[in-house]
Amino acid sequence: MSSPVFFTDLRAANDQSLLDKISNLVEAAGIQKVVKKRGLTAIKIHFGERGNTAFIRPVLVRPVIDVIAKAGGKPFLTDASTLYVGTRGNAVDHLTTAILNGFAYSTLQAPLIIADGLDGRDEVAVPIDLKLCREAYIASAVVRADSLVSLAHFKLHEAAGFGGAIKNVGMGAASRRGKMAQHSEVAPAVMQNKCIGCGICRDQCAHGAIRLEDRPPDVPRPREDAAKIAYIDQVLCVGCAGCIHACPQGALAIDWEKDLPRFMERMVEYTAGAVKGKEKRCLFVNFLTQISPACDCYPFADAPIVADIGIVASRDPVAVDQASIDLVNAQPPLDSSCVKGCPDAKSDKIRAVYPNIDWRHQLAYAQAIGLGSMSYDLVRL
Ligand code: SF4
Ligand code: SF4
C-alpha cells in the first residue's frame, strides 16, 4: 500500500514565506494527530558537529515547534550522544555545540534535552525481538516522550548510503550502548600497502583501538618515510567507523559485502525500537537542503551534490526516505561538488559517491519488517 508523502518546494513570496510553508507542510502531514494534548513531543534532530555547516538551520525548526505548541503539545529538541571523538560525546559538550550552532531556548522557545543523559547511559532496553536484535537500547527521553517528530537533514552517508528519517531515529536516538551494538560488526582493516603510519586514525579513535608499530621489513612501503604502520585491536574497536573517513590515504576499509547490510539491518531494527509504542504518534520530516556527500557528524560539510530541493513529510519513515532519494536522483548533479565526473551521477547519486554501498537494502529491510512502505504518493503542496 502506498503512503502519502507531502512535499513543499522552497519558492517563497511576500504573502508566503518558507516558514509559512513549513507550518503548512507539517499540518498537512498530520501533526495534529501526532501530538497529544499536554503530551511531551520529542523533536529528534541532529544539532551538527562543530565546524559542520549543512545541518538544518534553527530558523527552519521554529515553525515546527510553534505548530506542535499550537496543537497542545510540549515540544523539546533532542539528540543522543555520539560514539566517536568530537564535540557531542556527552551532554555538556553536546549542549554547548548545539548552542554554538544556533539552537537555544531563547530563539526557539523549546528546551534542549540530551536524550541519553549526562554521559550517554540513560537508556531503555526496548524489546523488539527481530532478526538481529532482541532489544534496542534507546535514549530514555525518546522512549518516554508521548510523540516523536523526526527532523532529518537528508544527505549521503559513508556507511548507510544515505541518512534520512531511519538513520536519524534508528542510530540517532540510540544510546551509546545502542550505537555500539549497531556498529558491532563493522570492523575496519588496515591495508598495509597504503598506510603511511601518520597516526591520524589513532588520534581520531575514541576507544584507544589503534596503535602504531614499526613497519615489518617485508611489508612494502607506500613511500620512503613510512616507517610506522597502524594496527587495530579488534577487541577494543567498537566499529564506529570514525577512522575510515579520517584516513587521508584511504588505507582503512571494511567488508562492504558482509558488514554493511547487517549494519543497515541493525539500524532499521533500532528504528522499530525507537518508535515502538508510539507508531501512530510519529511524524518524519526530511529537509532536502544542503545535500552534502557525508554525515553531519564531521567537523566540515563538503559542497552540496545537487541544488536545494524542498522538504518532505510523512507518517511513514520508509516512504519519506524513498521519496527523498527519488527527488535527489531526479536532480542534475552539481559540477561544483564531488560527484563531478562520477559515473552514475545522473541516475544514482549515492552509488556515484559510494559505489560499494547498496543503499536500497536499508529501505527493503525496513519494508520487510513492517516499518513502512517503499511505495508512496507524492502530494505537492
Ligand atoms: S590514518 Fe591511514 S595512513 Fe595514517 S596511520 Fe591511520 S591507516 Fe595509516
Ligand atoms: S572503527 Fe574502531 S578503530 Fe576505527 S575509530 Fe572506531 S573504534 Fe576506533
Task: Explain this structure.
The chain has 381 residues and is α/β, with parallel strands linked by helices. The protein contains 14 helices and 16 strands. The chain has helices at residues 18-28, 31-34, 58-70, 91-100, 105-108, 140-144, 165-170, 176-183, 200-204, 242-246, 259-275, 317-329, 349-353, 360-368; strands at residues 3-8, 40-44, 74-79, 112-114, 123-127, 135-139, 147-153, 155-157, 161-163, 189-190, 210-214, 228-232, 252-253, 282-288, 310-314, 376-380. Helix 8 packs antiparallel against helix 11 (259-275) and helix 11 (259-275) crosses helix 14 (360-368). It is globular and about 70 Å long. The relative contact order is 0.18. The structure holds iron/sulfur cluster (SF4) (2 copies). One iron/sulfur cluster is lined by residues 190, 195-201, 230, 247, 249, 251-252.
Separation, N- and C-terminal Cα atoms? 22 Å
Domain module tally: 2
Into which percentage range does the β-strand content fall?
A: 15-25%
Shape: globular
- Round the Cα radius of gyration to an integer and report it: 21 Å
The biggest beta sheet reads:
8 strands, mixed
From N to C, what is the helix and strand string? EHHEHEHHEEEHEEEHHEHEEHEHEEHHHE
Q: Count every beta strand, where a strand is a DSSP E run of 2 or more residues.
A: 16
What is the third-level CATH name, the topology of the largest domain?
Rossmann fold
Instruction: Assign a percent range to the helix content.
Output: 25-40%
Structural class: alpha/beta
How many helices? The count is: 14
What is the CATH class name of the largest domain? Answer: Alpha Beta
Mean pLDDT: 93
